[in-house]
């Protein structure tokens, strides 16, 4: 134990050494004094003031000379000068201002090389330890992590761990800090080395049966790559096998929550990156059992935490991990070919329903007072994922929670609007001063849109949503998402795709309202504004490739609202003809005559441009033809537009050209509906249909209503 007397004596010795160093007249005298100083500098009880005195006396000149010297005195070890130089810098690096000095930063390559030096003696081991101290000091300094990553320290530390060089445990500690703070940059700069390291770590995790297994369990989420590399590469597949094996050894054992909960966190990280695919990595036969085990445990933890009257604060991160695992379970249960059999699926759905019931209970009890809490957004997100698939269970609880969900959506959307409308400097300050940091949760609506598509189709839920002002809120949200989707500065494909999906989901909600609450469309001014926007935007959207499903949503929703607002000022706008001309193009270009048939007679087929998206948009297309047909009697100028577009001629040509057997009943039905409306409401159309053999074609295709209409006066 060091006594005050020992401390004072050490300081007096150091002061004498520094005085000798300052007064030294030759390199030999300086070296001798410096040797004494470095021995003092290694003392563990030196405070910041003493270390600063050493720097003031030594500066960077001596360490630089030592580090870059190419020779040593006869009889001395080759590493002597480097060892002394690194020791001095390790002493300086305890001061953050010195650790951030360019004279230290430019020594990073030397420290990297030193930590991988083979330890042939205690002196070399001490030099390696000092190099680690330098790296730790730089890491603790402002922007130190960036300097280390750009200086290839990650690669050197990976090598030190893989070869189990001296102090390899410290290499893993520094790597953990670097990857936690700059994961993307680390992987971009040192991808191959991190791949080898992750393979080693996951192998050890699967193989070990001691406390180190649980240490690895804590840090492995930090070492996972920030992309889908694990699913796309052989080395990633190997890592997943090891992770899967190690995780299920832990989760299948009787362990304390302190040991089991980190395993669920790691499983949640894998679920976030790989979905449920990681569970199949080790054994497809056991995949269903593993999935059920993980999701069941997550549901139990969710219920225990969310139904506990005690505050959640210390458990929020863990419960959010459980949310990710339940979301994985929901996705797996809704797949066309899940790995679960029917009994397993039913059992899992029941457990997840109870867990989501706990989420609703928590939001009802605490949500109103915790709108600012990021955990509330996580709770809304998992509930949105559940309600997107299931709204009939717990129906009363869902409906009673709707006022809060609408309040939450409106609150954060309005705050996002306020923030976006501020000058950029003010906006950034607002973001940084909130609990959210740089993450602004203005798009909480996106997580609930699929659920709203279901809820607006149900009478009781729809009434609550309408009373809470959801139509106006979603109209504002839709217009904002359209700005994001069409903005020239939206360069990120992910951002544009998310906006497009949100637009499509909004259209689904609006379509439900148009069909189930037609009187509402004329009462709510927002629908008139929405229709005007769609009329203006569809002509520019249709020519853009790759957005046919969004075009279908725009066109059909616009048609459905046009039918209800035909007599209002909205339809007097100059843009309506451009809108309907574009709708006509969209509807008429879907089907063509194909000559690829064994009989030799052409058959009806989808055009190449429509085939890839038909599964998503076919219902919309059929509904669109029906809606267009119902507009013919309401808008007297529409038949003339049909004639000018050539669509009527195309339909009659198809009916006469292809094999009747190739027409589906649905297609015959919608074509008949359109032809009947054109016949009844426009003499020129009626005449053209008769001239093109309309009676014969109506008889051939079993269009009895059209045949009767054509035969009348």
UniProtKB/TrEMBL annotation:
GO cellular component: dendrite
Signal peptide: none
GO biological process: neuron projection development; regulation of neuronal synaptic plasticity
Top-rank taxon: Eukaryota
InterPro entries, per the entry: ARM-type_fold, Neurochondrin
Entry's family note: Belongs to the neurochondrin family.
The protein's name: Neurochondrin
């Amino acid at each position: 134990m060091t006594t005050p007397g020992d401390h004072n004596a050490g300081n007096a010795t150091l002061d004498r050494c520094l005085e000798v160093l300052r007064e030294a007249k030759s390199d030999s005298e300086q070296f001798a004094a410096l040797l004494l100083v470095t021995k003092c500098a290694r003392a563990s009880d030196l405070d910041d003031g003493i270390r600063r005195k050493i720097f003031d006396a030594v500066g960077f000149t001596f360490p630089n000379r030592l580090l870059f010297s190419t020779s040593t005195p006869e009889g001395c070890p080759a590493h002597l000068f480097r060892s002394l130089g690194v020791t001095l810098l390790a002493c300086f690096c305890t001061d953050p201002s010195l650790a951030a000095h360019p004279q230290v930063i430019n020594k990073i390559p030397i420290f990297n090389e030193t930590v991988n030096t083979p330890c042939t003696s205690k002196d070399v081991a001490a030099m390696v330890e000092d190099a680690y101290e330098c790296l730790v000091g730089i890491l603790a300094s402002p922007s130190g992590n960036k300097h280390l990553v750009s200086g290839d320290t990650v690669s050197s530390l990976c090598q030190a761990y893989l070869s189990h060089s001296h102090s390899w445990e410290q290499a893993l500690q520094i790597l953990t800090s670097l990857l936690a703070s700059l994961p993307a940059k680390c992987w971009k700069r040192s991808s191959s080395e991190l791949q080898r390291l992750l393979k080693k770590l996951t192998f050890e995790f699967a193989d070990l049966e001691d406390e180190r297994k649980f240490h690895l369990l804590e840090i492995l989420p930090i070492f996972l790559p920030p992309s889908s590399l694990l699913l796309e590469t052989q080395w990633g597949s190997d890592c997943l096998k090891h992770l899967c094996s190690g995780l299920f050894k832990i989760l299948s054992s009787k362990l304390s929550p302190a040991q089991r909960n980190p395993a669920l966190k790691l499983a949640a990280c894998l679920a976030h990156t790989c979905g449920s695919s990681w569970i199949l990595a080790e054994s497809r036969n056991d995949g269903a059992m593993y999935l059920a085990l993980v999701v069941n445990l997550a549901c139990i933890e969710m219920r225990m935490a969310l139904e506990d009257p005690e505050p959640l604060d210390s458990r929020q991160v863990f419960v959010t991990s459980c949310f990710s695992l339940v979301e994985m379970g929901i996705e797996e249960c809704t797949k066309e070919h899940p790995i679960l059999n029917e009994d397993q699926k039913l059992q899992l759905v029941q457990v997840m329903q109870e867990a989501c019931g706990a989420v609703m209970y928590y939001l009802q009890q605490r949500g109103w007072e915790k709108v600012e809490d990021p955990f509330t957004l996580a709770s809304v997100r998992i509930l949105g994922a559940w309600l997107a698939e299931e709204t009939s269970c717990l129906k009363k609880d869902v409906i009673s929670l709707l006022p809060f969900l609408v309040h939450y959506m409106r609150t954060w959307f309005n705050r996002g609007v306020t923030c976006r409308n501020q000058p950029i400097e003010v906006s950034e300050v607002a973001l940084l001063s909130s609990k959210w940091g740089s993450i602004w949760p203005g798009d909480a609506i996106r997580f609930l849109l699929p659920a709203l598509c279901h809820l607006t189709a149900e009478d009781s839920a729809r009434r609550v949503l309408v009373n809470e002002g959801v139509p106006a809120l979603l109209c504002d949200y839709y217009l904002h998402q359209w700005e994001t989707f069409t903005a020239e500065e939206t360069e990120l494909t992910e951002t544009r795709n998310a906006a497009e999906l949100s637009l499509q989901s909004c259209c689904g909600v609006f379509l439900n309202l148009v069909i189930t609450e037609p009187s509402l469309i004329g009462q709510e001014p927002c629908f008139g504004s929405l229709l005007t926007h769609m009329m203006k935007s569809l002509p520019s959207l249709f020519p853009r490739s790759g957005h046919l499903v969004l075009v279908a949503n725009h066109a059909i929703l616009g048609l459905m609202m046009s039918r209800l607002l035909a007599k209002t000022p909205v339809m007097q706008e100059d843009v309506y003809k451009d809108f309907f001309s574009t709708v006509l193009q969209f509807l008429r270009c879907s089907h063509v005559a194909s000559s690829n048939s064994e009989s030799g007679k052409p058959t009806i087929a989808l055009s190449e441009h429509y085939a890839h998206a038909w599964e998503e948009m076919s219902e919309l297309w059929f509904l669109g033809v029906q809606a267009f047909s119902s507009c013919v009697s309401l808008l007297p100028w529409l038949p003339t537009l049909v004639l000018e577009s050539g669509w009527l001629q195309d339909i009659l040509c198809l009916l006469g050209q292809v094999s009747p057997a190739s027409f589906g009943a649905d297609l015959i039905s919608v074509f008949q509906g359109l032809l009947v409306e054109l016949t009844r409401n426009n003499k020129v159309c009626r005449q053209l249909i008769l001239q093109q053999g309309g009676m014969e074609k109506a008889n051939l295709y079993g269009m009895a209503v059209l045949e009767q209409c054509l035969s009348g006066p």
